Amino acid sequence: MPFKVPIIYRYVLREIAAPFLITLFTLTGLLFLIQVLKLMELVVDRSVPFIDILRLFSYVVPQFLELAIPMAVLIGVIVALGRLSADSEIVAMRSSGIPISKLSRPIFFFSSFVFVGAIVTTFYLAPWANYRLGQGLFELAKSQATAGLSSGVFNDFGKLTIYAEGVTEESRRLLNIVIEDKREADKERVIIANHGQVVPDDSARKLMLRLFDGSIYEGRTRDFNLTYFDINTLELPHSELADDDSAMRGKKAREMPGPELFQTVFNQQVPVSTDLEAVQERRQLRLEIHRRIAFVFVPFLVAVVALALGVQPSRASNSWGGGVSVGIGIIVIIIYYVSFAFLTALAEQGLMPAVLSAWIPNALLLGLGLYMFHMVREERWSSVSQALGNLLAVIGHLRK
Hints:
There is one protein chain. The chain has about 400 residues and is α+β, with helices and mostly antiparallel strands. The chain folds into 2 domains: about 5-140 and about 275-400, no CATH class; about 160-235. About 60% of the residues lie in helices and about 15% in strands. It has 10 helices and 6 strands. The protein has helices spanning about 5-45, 50-85, 90-95, 100-145, 260-265, 275-295, 300-310, 320-350, 355-375, 385-400; strands at about 155, 160-170, 175-180, 190-200, 205-220, 225-235. β1 (about 155) and β2 (about 160-170) form a beta hairpin. α1 runs antiparallel to α2 (about 50-85), α2 (about 50-85) packs antiparallel against α4 (about 100-145) and α2 (about 50-85) crosses α8. The longest helix is centred in the first third of the chain and has 44 residues, at about 100-145. The chain is elongated.
């Protein structure tokens, strides 16, 4: 006999699907527009074909799904349960012997499908898009390497100001060069060179300015050093929207699909050594593994929180209760991502293990969700929003 989804499951799933999809597309669209404004800064003043711009834009979208999917689960579940509460259907279910715990089954059934989508996005789609975006932006920067340099004009490249009497776009050659280097705030440095050439480093995805027959003036007033050189190389900064793992050699950690990332770490393709750069590179890879695994479970954790927040007394669900629940849920997710970012920053500096930085926020989110769900299921709270309102009322009364 083929498996048949119970009617109540299908009913709850239909209630969740619409707000979930609307929130997913709306939030992804808003994040996309914000990032597009940043991307437009790279191409608005350059002769870039429109089709190349569209391709770069498309690579940005998967980056936002990791943020948009949990938020869509949260709002989808809260809106669905709020609608059921408003029509007293949850009260009717409880009266007919259907506990809240059984109502949670279709929600977690729905979260299972979202979980699969999160795995595909986090381990395959987003890394592929990050890699293609990084490659596309570097190719754009490489093709425009000297297009942004005008002869006889002071050109700003980040903290480098470059003057060249002659610029040859075809060969990326510069003649009679003067460079003011402000990369070190406590030093004044001026570099003079007879000629130079922009040289792309495809493996490291960097643009290098190789200078020939020149001198470097360092220091202030009379207290300065003069150094002559035959060849000197400077890195030209170029804007990238993709994540910059500065310690990584070759493909970045967030550009590796799941199997490649695991293989790189566990087959020790990155050597374990006391070299600072190698240690940092390995740390980045381990952080990325734990980050991805932790993120794919977030839809389940958010579903627990949303299940507790979504149940409302029928008299409150049409007024402020549902809106407050959505607001509480959004605040909880924001706190989760802020704490995740903070602990990740500590782990990047080697101040805590990568596994703790990724899983402590998940554990706290799960604990909060289970506690709120327990209080609502046992009817100690009529709803989370009303419990919060009562707590705030008590605090206000004590202050008086």
